[in-house]
């Protein structure tokens, strides 16, 4: 039995407020919703929908803002490739002076293919395979972030066999709650991530004694979509304390990787503050003679992307607006109950009186729902909308579920735009499949 459309929340921002909070978006009487200087309807006309569109200018500006906040600190930015791994995005990050944080062979190879030098790459992740560790070592990356005592032994053995030594940082699990969604919390003791805080001194000493690894410092990452500085302050204080403990034992600690996680305002609230993050780093690690690193993903690229969709039909006494985009494109609402702004592309549509509707996709799952009880202007069949803040954990988390080809991607830069990924052809959905003779 269907639940009634939930009541509209009082704090739901209007379409105008959503646009006003995002400098890369504007609404024009004739051209409608515009990303930088390119009307999104023009891109939808050419590419069809669903389609992703990214703003190069927004990505560049955000990286510059983050780097400016870090100025004065000995800090490098390693962009978390998992947030958006497109080669063009990686090129923008590299050109802006960022390295990369990778978690797989695929991401490492992509980062290298985009021209990011191995010396600017950090490899994180709880389950690096032998093949991935070997690649990281032979490429000569900046450091591997080790997530367990067991992994440390494996890395040392592989590096020794290769006749070298791998630079490693130990990922500390500080047991700090980041105050974010449980599915993206990584810094509490119950999660699989990192080395338990109290075990770190022994594991670090073991690393210093092993032939195949050179321990260079610590790493931490407490979660994603963090909107306040308090969890960072708590985690950094614990990490700084650990650096002092290790140094008191005569162990060399020269690097501190402060992780990612800085949140963005998905409604019209302000984004997490890079200046506040830098302040927390300065407070905890200032004067400690540490090379600092941050590895943000979402904050750099999330607000720079939109997902364009078309209303396929409106059903159920106007209650359900069915889009041609679905959970297989943008998974976040289904997976984390995430809220994404929805804005009509046509200026006339965007200003109409609003009623609460459920915005859903066509996939055969009840969780294929982008918004419940969302106050939206009347959307007719054929109207086009943009789902906002889809630049991070959007296209990278897509699947082809329900036989739906991967959507195309366009990149806007000022008044120019280009297709940076074609729509997948239907035949490519089964191109790698073989039907064995015995059936
Ligand atoms: N470093 C490490 C070790 C990470 O595991 C992550 C993200 C990052 C950096 C970057 O975090 P960010 O700055 O983007 O918050 N799919 C989820 C988010 C998963 C984050 C996983 N790890 C979502 O859509 O909300």
Automatic annotation (TrEMBL):
InterPro entries named among the record's database cross-references: Ala_racemase/Decarboxylase_C, DAP_deCOOHase_LysA, De-COase2_CS, De-COase2_N, De-COase2_pyr-phos_BS, Orn/DAP/Arg_de-COase, PLP-binding_barrel
Active site: 364 (proton donor)
Pathway note: Amino-acid biosynthesis; L-lysine biosynthesis via DAP pathway; L-lysine from DL-2,6-diaminopimelate: step 1/1
Cofactor: pyridoxal 5'-phosphate
Keyword Kinase (UniProt): no
Gene Ontology biological-process entries: lysine biosynthetic process via diaminopimelate
Listed SUPFAM superfamilies: Alanine racemase C-terminal domain-like, PLP-binding barrel
N6-(pyridoxal phosphate)lysine carried by residues: 82
EC number(s) given by UniProt: 4.1.1.20
Positions of substrate binding: 298, 332, 336, 365, 393
Reactions listed under catalytic activity: meso-2,6-diaminopimelate + H(+) = L-lysine + CO2
Subunit-level organization: Homodimer.
Alphabetized NCBIfam families for the sequence: lysA
Family: Belongs to the Orn/Lys/Arg decarboxylase class-II family. LysA subfamily.
Protein name (database record): Diaminopimelate decarboxylase
Organism classification: Bacteria, Pseudomonadati, Pseudomonadota, Alphaproteobacteria, Acetobacterales
Gene this protein is translated from: lysA
């Amino acid at each position: 039995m269907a639940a009634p459309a939930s009541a509209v929340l009082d704090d739901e921002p209007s379409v105008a407020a959503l646009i006003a909070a995002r400098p890369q978006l504007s609404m024009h009487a004739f051209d409608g919703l515009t990303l930088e200087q390119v009307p999104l309807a023009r891109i939808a006309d050419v590419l069809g929908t669903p389609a992703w569109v990214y703003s190069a200018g927004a990505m560049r500006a955000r990286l510059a803002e983050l780097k400016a906040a870090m100025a004065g600190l000995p800090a490098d930015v390693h962009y978390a490739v998992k947030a958006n791994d497109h080669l063009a995005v990686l090129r923008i990050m590299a050109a802006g002076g960022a390295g990369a944080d990778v978690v797989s062979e695929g991401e490492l190879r992509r980062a290298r293919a985009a021209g990011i030098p191995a010396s600017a790459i950090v490899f994180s992740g709880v389950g690096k395979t032998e093949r991935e560790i070997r690649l990281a070592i032979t490429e000569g990356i900046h450091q591997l972030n080790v997530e367990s005592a067991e992994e440390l032994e494996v890395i040392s053995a592989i590096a020794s066999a290769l006749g070298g030594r791998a630079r490693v940082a130990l990922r500390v699990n500080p047991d700090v709650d980041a105050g974010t969604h449980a599915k993206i919390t990584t810094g509490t003791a119950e999660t699989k991530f990192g080395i338990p805080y109290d075990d770190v001194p022994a594991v670090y000493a073991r690393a210093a004694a092993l032939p195949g690894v050179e321990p260079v410092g610590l790493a931490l990452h407490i979660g994603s979509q963090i909107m306040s500085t308090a969890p960072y302050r708590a985690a950094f204080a614990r990490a700084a304390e650990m650096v002092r403990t290790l140094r008191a034992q005569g162990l060399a600690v020269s690097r501190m990787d402060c992780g990612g996680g800085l949140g963005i305002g998905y409604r019209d609230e302000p984004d997490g503050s890079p200046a506040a993050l830098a302040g927390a780093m300065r407070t905890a690690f200032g004067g400690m003679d540490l090379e600092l690193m941050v590895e943000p993903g979402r904050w750099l690229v999330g607000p720079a992307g939109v997902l364009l969709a078309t209303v396929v039909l409106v059903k159920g006494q106007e209650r359900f607006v069915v889009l041609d985009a679905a959970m297989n494109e943008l998974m976040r609402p289904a997976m984390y109950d995430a809220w994404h702004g929805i804005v009509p592309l046509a200026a006339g549509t965007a200003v109409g009186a609003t009623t609460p509707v459920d915005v859903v996709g066509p996939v055969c799952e009840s969780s294929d729902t982008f918004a419940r009880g969302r106050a939206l202007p009347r959307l007719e069949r054929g109207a086009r909308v943009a789902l906002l803040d889809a630049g991070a954990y959007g296209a990278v988390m897509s699947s082809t579920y329900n036989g739906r080809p991967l959507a195309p991607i366009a990149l806007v830069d000022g008044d120019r735009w280009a297709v940076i990924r074609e729509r997948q052809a239907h035949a490519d959905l089964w191109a790698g499949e073989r039907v064995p003779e015995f059936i």
